[in-house]
Write a structure and sequence with these properties.
Two copies of one chain form a homodimer. By secondary structure, chain A is an alpha/beta fold. Chain A has 18 helices and eleven strands. Chain A folds into three domains: 123 residues, no CATH class; 215 residues, Rossmann fold; 54 residues, Winged helix-like DNA-binding domain superfamily/Winged helix DNA-binding domain (Arc Repressor Mutant, subunit A). A nine-stranded mixed β-sheet of chain A has the order 1-2-6-5-4-3-7-8-9, sandwiched between helices. In chain A, strands 10-11 form a two-stranded antiparallel ribbon. Chain A is globular, with a radius of gyration of 21 Å. At the A-B interface, α9, α14 and β9 of A face α9, α14 and β9 of B. Chains A, B: It holds the Pfam family DNA_processg_A. Chains A, B: Belongs to the DprA/Smf family.
C-alpha cells in the first residue's frame, strides 16, 4: 500500500479514494492502489500549482505525484526534498545534484504551494467533476494528447474533459485555428471557410472558445459535422465566456471541452496565457486568423513556434487593425502565409525543427498572477492574494511593493487593491 | 577619324552626325568624333536589337557599338566576328575563345538583326526624338542609372528620356512601386498612402505608368511634390496607355519618362516584360501592391530578386483575387511583407545577396516575339514578321511551324496570322 500521502492528506481511506476516482476517471477496478494514489495526487496538484509551474513539473518528474505530495504534507525542508529528488531515476534524468539555486527554487515552490495544500479542495474537485460528467485524464491515459509531452516540465498534470475524450485520438491530425476576439466580418468569413475546409480534409479543429475567431472556428467545424476540441482557461464546469455557454454545450455534445484546471477554478489572465500553450502543444499545427498588434493569439503562435509546430498565418488588409498582429508574425517570425484551407492542410506535412532558444517571456509571470488576484474594489490580505495567485506570501509582498511603486496596486489598513485602469482583459 | 561604320551605314558625314546627336543628347562640341560615332551606333542598335538581346550585349561589350555596327554593315561572317571579339579587352573579359556554340549564337544574331539594318531608321529615331524634346542617355552619361549596369549583358544600350533627366541622380534612393492594372479601391488606397509616405522620406517613386497601381503611384508622388520616374515599353513619343496621356505629360513636366526603345517603337508583350527589368534594376528596391496570380508585376518582382534588390510585398484580403499574386510571392519567395511606407523605406537599408541561380524563363522568348508580330486579321510574310520581331527569317519560320501545330498561328497564301483568342494583353 502506498496511499500514505493521500490518506494523510485527505483523511480518506483507500476505498473512498477509489470510489471518487472511478466516478470521474479511467481508473477501473483493475487499477492498483498505487495507480489510484498517484492519480489522486495529480488531482491535488492540479489545484495546488498554477499551470506551467516548472518547479512543480520537476518535483513530479523526480518523485511522482504521490511522492511529491507526501513531501509537501510532511513539510520536508528543501534540502531533504532535493536529496529525495536526486535518488530517483526521474531526478537523475533531470540531472539533479546539490545546487544552491535549486534549493532556493524548491523553497520558493514550497512557500507558493503551502497556502493551497488543502485536502478538502482536492476532494471537492472530484465531487464537482462527477456532477458535471467530467472525465479525468492523466498522461498514462490512452487518449492523453501526446503533443502535450513536448511541454516537458511545463506539461499539465491532468486534463479534465467533458464530451467525447475518444476524439482526442485524432489530435495528431488537428490544426489549432485561433485569432482575435475583436474579429471582423472578413476574419469570420475566412475562419468559417478554413474550418469547413479543414473538416472536409478530416482535420480536427482545436481552439479556445473565445469570442471572435475561436468561436467561429468551433461553430464552422460543428456545422460541417467535424471534430472540434476546446481548451478552457478555467474549470470545465463553468463555461467562459458566458455568451458561449450554448456553443460550449454543443461542443460537449459532439466534441471535447478540456482544461488542466479543476472544476471550480476561475479563468485568469495567467491561465489564459497558459491555456494557449496547451492549444499549441496539443495540435499538430497552428493557424492564426486575424490578431491585433498585441493579441493573445500571438502568445499561442509563440508557443507553437517554440514547440517546433508549423505556424500558419492568414494576412488581411494592411488597413485593418485586426490583421496587424498577423502581419507582425509574418514579418518577424518564420510563420508561413496561408490563404486557403488547402494551404493550411499542407502545414501538417511540414517538418519543422524547433528553434534553439526558448521564447522570451514578455511579462513577469509573478506580477501577472498577483495582479490577477487583486480586486479593484475589495481590499485583500497578502495571505489571501498568495492563495489566489498560487504564490508564497513573501513573493506576493515583494511583488506588491513593486506594484505600489509603479502605481498598479495600492495598500491600506484592510489590505491591497488594484489601482487605476479597468479590469485586466481576459486574453484569449 | 573612326566614323567608318556610321558614314558607311547612313551615308552621313561627320558634321551631320554631330548635329543630329547634339539635338538630342549630351554630346557637346567637346566630344570627339569617336564619341559621336559610338553614340550613334548605340542609337542604331536600340532599333536593331530587341531589349535584353544577350548576344547584342556581348557584341557591344567586345567590339564597342561602332565596331559592332561596322561588322554588321560589312557583313562579316560569324567566325570573323568571333575572332574580332576575342582580340579586345572586353572580349577577353567575357572569356571569348573559339567555341562552336558561340559561332551559332553570332550567326543567329546576324540573321535576327539583318532585317532591321536600316540607316534611315536610325536617323529617323534621332529626328523624331528631337521633335519630342527627348534626351539621349548612354552608360557614359552622368545621369545614367547605375543600377542598370547590374543587368550585365542584358543592359540597355541607350535610354531615351523626356522630362528632367537630372532627377535620375536620385535613383539610388528610389523604390519601384508596381502592381496590378486590375487594382481595387483597397490597393489604390494603399498605393496612395505608400507613395506619399515614401516621398515624405525623400524617396523617388519609380513605376511603369500602367493603369491601376502604377498610375496611382505616379499620381500620388506628383501630388506630394515628389520625384517620379516612369519606364515605358515603347517609344517616349507616344504615350501608352493612351488613357494615361495626361498623367505622362504631367510626369514629363516634373519627373522623367524613359524608354530604351527609340521614338516610334510600339509596345509589345515582350517589351513590357523587358521594360520590367529596367524598373527593377534602376530602383534600389521594389514593392508590389496588389498583383493577380499571373500579374506582370510578378515579372518585375522576379527581376528585382534576381538582381539582389530588396523586394517588399503588401498583403491583402485572401478573398481578393487582386492580392493572390502578392500572397504567392510571400509564400514562394523571400519577399518581405510590408504594410506601411515606413516599412517600405526600411527596404533601402537591407543588404540582400543575389540568389545563385537565374530566374527561370516561363515562356519561350522567341515564340512571344513572333506572336507579338502577328496580326489577327492581316496576313504577314515571314520576312515582315522577322523584321517586326527582331528575329531571323529562319527562326521565325521554325517558330511559326510550332505555333501552327499548337493552333496559335495559321499560315496561308498571303502569309501568317494569329489564330484564336483575343489580342494578347499588353502586360504591365
Amino acid at each position: 500500500m502506498n496511499l500514505t500521502a493521500t490518506t494523510l492528506f485527505g483523511g480518506l481511506n483507500e476505498a473512498d479514494v477509489l470510489t471518487r476516482l472511478r466516478a470521474v476517471s479511467a481508473v477501473t477496478g483493475d487499477s492498483t492502489a498505487e495507480d489510484a494514489a498517484e492519480v489522486f495526487a495529480r488531482v491535488a496538484f492540479s489545484g495546488i500549482a498554477e499551470p506551467g509551474d516548472r518547479m512543480a513539473g520537476m518535483l513530479l518528474t523526480a518523485l511522482g505525484a504521490n511522492g511529491a505530495l507526501d513531501a509537501l504534507i510532511r513539510r520536508c525542508d528543501p534540502e531533504r526534498i532535493m536529496g529525495l529528488m536526486g535518488q530517483t531515476a526521474g531526478g537523475a534524468a533531470l540531472g539533479i545534484a546539490f545546487d544552491e539555486e535549486l534549493v532556493q527554487l524548491i523553497s520558493a515552490g514550497l512557500e507558493r504551494w503551502a497556502p493551497r495544500l488543502n485536502a478538502r479542495e482536492a476532494v471537492a474537485h472530484l465531487e464537482r467533476a462527477a456532477r458535471f460528467d467530467t472525465v479525468l485524464l492523466t498522461p498514462a491515459h490512452a487518449f492523453w494528447p501526446q503533443g502535450l509531452d513536448d511541454l516537458g516540465l511545463h506539461a499539465p498534470h491532468v486534463l479534465w474533459a467533458r464530451g467525447t475524450p475518444e476524439l482526442l485520438a485524432t489530435l495528431p491530425r488537428s490544426i489549432a485555428v485561433v485569432g482575435a476576439r475583436a474579429s471582423t466580418g472578413y476574419g469570420e468569413h475566412v475562419t468559417m471557410e478554413a474550418a469547413a475546409g479543414l473538416v472536409d480534409r478530416g482535420v480536427t479543429v482545436v481552439s479556445g472558445a473565445a469570442y471572435g475567431i475561436d468561436g467561429m472556428a468551433h461553430r464552422s467545424a460543428l456545422a460541417s459535422g467535424g471534430n472540434t476540441v476546446a481548451f478552457l482557461a478555467g474549470g470545465v464546469d463553468r463555461f467562459y465566456p458566458s455568451g458561449h455557454d450554448a456553443l460550449l454545450h454543443r461542443i460537449v455534445a459532439s466534441g471535447v471541452v478540456l482544461s488542466e484546471l479543476p472544476c471550480g477554478a476561475s479563468p485568469t489572465k495567467w491561465r489564459f496565457l497558459q491555456r494557449n500553450r496547451l492549444i499549441a502543444a496539443a495540435s499538430a499545427a497552428t493557424v492564426v486568423i486575424e490578431a491585433g498588434w498585441r493579441s493573445g493569439s500571438l502568445n499561442t503562435a509563440g508557443h507553437a513556434s517554440a514547440l517546433g509546430r508549423p505556424l500558419g498565418v492568414v494576412p488581411g488588409p494592411v488597413t485593418s487593425a485586426s490583421s496587424a498582429g498577423c502581419h507582425r508574425l509574418l514579418r518577424e517570425t518564420d510563420a508561413i502565409l496561408v490563404t486557403t484551407a488547402a494551404e493550411m492542410f499542407e502545414l501538417l506535412s511540414l517538418d519543422i525543427a524547433p528553434p534553439a532558444r526558448e521564447r522570451d517571456e514578455q511579462e513577469d509571470p509573478e506580477e501577472r498572477r498577483v495582479m490577477d488576484a487583486l480586486s479593484l474594489r475589495t481590499p485583500r490580505s497578502a495571505e489571501d492574494i498568495a492563495r489566489r495567485a498560487g504564490l508564497s506570501v513573501m513573493q506576493v509582498q515583494s511583488v506588491l511593493g513593486l506594484c505600489e511603486l509603479t502605481g498598479r496596486a495600492v495598500g491600506g489598513d484592510k489590505g491591497w487593491r488594484r489601482h487605476g485602469g479597468s479590469d485586466p482583459q481576459k486574453g484569449g
